[in-house]
Fold each of these.
Amino acid sequence: MTPPRPEAPSRARVLDFAARTADLLERAARTAVAEAPSDGGGSNGSSNGNGSDPDNGSASHPGDGVRRLRDEAARAADGAATLVVVGEKKRGKSSTINSLVGVPDLLPVDADVATGVHIAVRYGEHPRAVAHLRSDGDAPEAPPRAEPVPLERIAEYAAVDPRTGRPRRLDVHHVEVELPVPLLAAGLELVDTPGVGGLVGGHAELALAALENADALVFVVDGSSELTRSELEFLGRATERTAETVFVLTKTDSYDAWPTVVERNRELLARHAPRHAEAPWFPVSNRARRDAVAAADSGELQEAAELLEESGFEPLEALLRRRIAARAAELRLANVVHVALAALAVPLAEQELRLRSLQQEPGLAAEVERAEEALRLLQPDSAQWRRALTTGSRDLKNTLQLGFRRSLNDIRRVAEAKIATSEPAALAEEFPAELEAQVEAVWLQLDNAARRGLAVLEERVRRECSTVLDTGNPDGRADGGAGGPGPGAELALVEEGAVIRAERGTLLPEMVHSTHRDGGPLGMIENVIPSVGTAATFGTVIGLLTSSVLLPAVASYAMLAVLTRRRRQRAELGRVRGDATRHLNRVLTELSTEIPAQITDHVDELADRLGLALDRAIADERLRLERRLAEHRRNLAASAAELAAARDRTKRRIGALTTLRDEGLALAHGLAATGRPDPDRS
């Protein structure tokens, strides 16, 4: 029998803990300012026992840790688990999203590849949609402009043109939809990415890139046939992108053999994508779900309940709530506790150090002086952290450039295969859209790689600073206490929004369709004459074989028509392939010109910002240590009564901080225990 799992701390408990922690830190900062010596050396009684050292960073920057904590708590309170919904063309992906939110006509479902831009469907008290627009004149750092969109007009902003396969609006960056739906209120956000409606060409790359920040993948198939090769390849590549996969099999009302299809799909997954072999499957009927909504709207509640049960959506929604929304909520709550503990660690370590000074421990002055010397080693241009920043940013640029060149090679390989194997009509209509999807996927993948690389660079440089600080910090840690932020922690190196920016429509030229005038007498002669000899020979052979007069003429005419048509088809194919090849070369040339420069500029800019932030942090830390040393010397000269009163105040503050820290550690333990894999997982 499996022992019961520990109950996760409720969101209310964690958010209350975060609020009390933030309030305490703010009060401590205000107390520090009020008790600080006005002349830099004032009486001992006013300079000891502060809730926070007015010169140690907590008072001079009282909002840094508190702001991070409040922001993290707000994300935990309002955040939702991100579900990326993926499926081949005409599998029922958009209909499934519509069914989950109970709005049958929300997302466009008629076009072949309906989704043209990123669409996020999340909870809101009132139904609304907003399109975020960019214009060619916008600066790269400018946020998209928000434009309200009626729900019934989402397709005008988010869909592609079914004739051309290109987005209807090139200025649309993404669309956000809010609905007062219980499933979304439970903590879920459904994401439909550009081109996810078909796992062909660049659409698979876009879906994979979108999974970088997803909590789960919802993979939609239907009951008509087993998983295709492209679907299995996609799932194999998605193995490392997401920790949770849910399969939805649609159209159970149209295909009676769907149970056999599910079993066959499980076999294929076990062989080709074993990571997903144990993922749950949910057979559903979007038609029954739509009819259930209509019945409920008409007041036929019993019929609506029966149709809802028939649709199969209730078990799917239950799993999404229980396994994905709840787990994502626990992760976000764990982040809140982690940030709170880090924020508490700094003032707690400072108060403990102050108590040592008030207790007049011998050797404390020497420890602070060694810390000052360690900081001086970080300041020269030859400091190790500066070399790490220089070499790290150079290596990151090289890595990103290499990855970008490889991505261009992949685009060329896939595009050339498409050009070589497609029929003229399909090539002319589908190639621009598929190439654009591939390019967008490269942008997303490059942005994800840049974020990861910059985070690694930041950690590496800060670690170099910490290595030096460890030699002199009185408590042996560069962070000032358990888990506290190190120098430069106030820098948000990887910000919200794209790191590598490339706006839709600005780098991608339109595909130019060449024309060939084959009408008129000259065009007819050009097309017909090369085939006349072959047609005449064919007719002569038929005449010799049949001894007929009429049949050779008919055979000659028929052969002439066939050969002329084939000649025109070959000419059209050559023309369209030439157009597609020229378009491919133009796009790759534009990308090769623009993106490498962006990589260099962005990495250099962010590396410079990190260096400046660390310089500022090192200077602040040195000033803090100098003032701490001066405070310790004042304590050595203070009276016994002054020291006793200051020690009492400091002990009370240490007690308050320790109580909160212990509460946070207990919350963290509970969240970690419930975050382990469920042994009863089905």
Amino acid sequence: MRSFGKMAAMGMAGLLLFDLTLAVGVTSMSTVSNTAMMSIRSNGCTPTSAKDDSDSEGAGSSSDFKSNDVATKIAEAFASAGFSKAATAGVLGNVYAESGFVADRGSGDNGYGLGQWTPRSKIRAWMDANGLEGTPDSDEDGQIKMLVATAKSSFNNHYLSNAKSEITVKNDSLYDTWHDASDPEVAAVAWMAGWERPNWASRNEDVRKQVAKDYYSKGLNGVSFNGGGGGSDDDGGSQCCFQTDDSDGAASTASDNVTVTNSVQAYTDKYGQAAFDVGKKYGIPYEAILGQSAVESAWGASTLTTKYHNFFGIKAVNGQKSVSMGTKECNQGGCYDTTGDFAVYDSDEDGFAGYGKFIIGNSRYAAALQKRTDPHAYIQELKNAGYATDGNYVSTVWGVTQQFIAYIKQNNKFPPSSEVEFDTAPPADADGSSGDSDSNTTCPVRNGDGGDASYGSVGGAPSKDGDFSWMCSGNQRICGANDAGVFYPHLEFGHQCVWYAWNRLAMIHGNEGWSWVLGNGGDIANNLKGKPGWTVDSNPKPGDGISGSGSPFSGGGGCGHVAVVEEVSSDPSGWKIRISEGNRDGSASFSSYGSRWLTKAQLSGTDCQFFRNSNWKN
């Protein structure tokens, strides 16, 4: 049930009336009378077939356990998106409890589908916004895509305290607990509490846990999982301060055991050459181009792709031929349906070329273009620069990209990007250097005062003063002077530093899992002290906010200033930071974007402080 405070669509009590054996094709709910269903759901009774979760002959413990075809499809989709076996099993336990893996199952309280979304219209809205306009909301493949795509965005912590009474919760986050679970029963509880959110008194938790446990031990042996402990978006973090060996990046990053689907073969045969040609011309790992395009175009099946050859959801700019289509935007209040003007291309080849032009035409992706020999690092840098807001974007695209790498290697289709002779040189770094080095790796460095700074760069923000139009291709959609942004859409006082800082931080870290706080620029760090999830200290890290009132941060009217830490580098004083900021010249105009370097010595003795949120992934 996708709304807290309501009973699960079937409460599992109704489903248990027939049989808990996971055979294909669960008996239709129409065989149970509404009167009987309401009676069972209102008193929370458990049928005798599952009255004892240790000895039950029901779903989990029966010796005649059978996997379900739909469950296998769900598992394969989550595995391809980079999620772990335990996390996926937790999802399956919940989907079984909600719908019995039946995509057209409805309930009396307007829940519908595999996840019993409430109201049913949520399915239609999501499909229309994601290239599935002509697909009925009962389509099981479409619903599976929705399950995977909303695996993070639909989580909340409403039942956090309830879950804490039963399981150990990681980072005070039900999503992190599910995502990183190694125990399928823990994953089942976390998904139930954070994503499904049934009425807690009638949640039928034992069934969810037992089914998850059985799938983990018996039902997923044919599915290849590459997500390790949960497919973390920053799964290279433990390599910090070690030079990445790019000698065979593309070939060695995918296991020979990766399962290659028919879709991967067909997609590569159809679009592989176009991706390779664009990658070679513009200095982009073509394996990542294939992975991105497959994910964003629904494997070439979206309306935007089939009719208009746009594989990447690229918006039209500067009078480019366009089509207006439904899409989804998100802010701190949630996600909503809207329309966007998307670029129209004349052919598939033109669509792929348009992606290459888009990437090299935006300075924010300079760091990504440094990773031309490493598809995974390239995808990560795109995410860092704000290409996508979904916290699972890297793991989702990488899971698919690995399949392309495996298929290409097995069939010797193209050389890996590590062996490609690109037609263009990579762009220069902020310090003027260029190449394929790991220049943006973030590494902890000890300061003389005992604190920790972290050297590195988040990438994407211009190093010169100018206007805010460079933010156009990011998740805040700031293209012109009248654009307020998505995360912090407040332009009542112009393009002030606070307006810029919150929207830029959302570009870097995504819109989900955290929110901005009130306060003048100089007050923000102090206002965050003691708030759950926030850290305020004197040790800079790339992607931090910085807030203060003293010189060189004194602002007009005594309001102080707030900015964003783009880079942290070495300096004789201990460290230096490059910040990006709004209202640099005091005009609060659309052209008041600024960037400058400040040293530890300059900030010493001021009240400037750095702040960050525990839900920030980058």
